[in-house]
Amino acid sequence: MKSTRSIRVTTFLSIGIVLVATIAWAGLGHVSGSLKRVDAFGGLKSRPEKPSTAINYLLVGSDTREGLTAAERKLLRVGSTKSAAGKRSDTMLLVHISKARDKAVIISLPRDTLATIPSYISSAGKSVPSVRAKLNAAFAWGGAPLLIQTIESMSNLRIDHYVEINFAGFAHMVDALGGIEVCTKRDINDSNSHLTLAAGVHTLDGIEALKYVRTRDFDGMGDLGRMQRQQQFMSSVMRKATSSGVLLNPIKLLNFFNAAMATVQTDSALNGNDLITLAKQMRNLSASKVRTLTVPLSSTNYSVEGLGSTVVWDPILSAELFQRLINDQAVIDEVTPSPSASSSVKAAPVIVDKFKTRTALENPCGALK
């Protein structure tokens, strides 16, 4: 892999899901389910300081099959819950919502990131010393608390809330939105994901969408191609979730939120009142003010004995990025050039985007170059 822009970016945990869910709760008053809880911050010590009232969410996509029907597992060819015991964090996103609640930044954390996993107590009660491993190992070994501790130690950014979603949650929420439009410029026939699509524009239901974001073996580009498709799909989800056809349709909102409630797990401190308050505060947040990016990388193929190929964060750029989030500063800069000697007219500001961000307004077909 050669492009730092092409590392895995999740699709089904976009900020659009959070926004619509909170709006649904605030507007409809109640739903048929209740949030599932996980002790995400249990036992964490020496956590980073929090200098502002901005909010940081850690959103995790788990590959657990729990919640999928037998028919859905058959369509996906993913096997039963027993055949895939345990769960792995296939996707990790940090979502930073500004203290003014008018901007959001979504940062993808590659699962193969080379990380130092802090010492922890195993499920068998044994003390395990710190060790270098891939980032998703923290989730596999110690669940949400160990993953949060690892990310906080690497970024020095304090995580306020934790949200986890599985295969079933992704598929059911896509269905609740009425499907998501994708555009492929070449035929897809992937025998591993069992996805077949002709070139062109398609509206995918939940199961087909899950196949789409998992497929990687049809074009010879492997993870590189899959990551590009996932980024484009993420933008499509954001646009659909915040479209008038969804936001002004109480039935769709209720179905969407009930689908989320049935499969999403959150930290024990996140409650309905928090979501209602957040929804009211974020009225001014539009898709154009949501930026997505991958944490800056210095290597996408760093070999480590016993681990294989890993991804390494750029020590300078990643540190700057997280410091900006800690201070609730913008991740892009606007530089106003000085007027030339022959003109007193100010030139238009120049956008400096050293972190290579994108906005959620990106068109899925236009984005495929």
UniProtKB/TrEMBL annotation:
- Name-wise, this protein is Unannotated protein
Q: Which organism is it from?
A: freshwater metagenome
Residue ranges annotated for the Cell envelope-related transcriptional attenuator domain, each copy included? 88-242
Matches recorded under InterPro entries: LytR/CpsA/Psr_CW_biosynth (IPR050922), LytR_CpsA_psr (IPR004474)
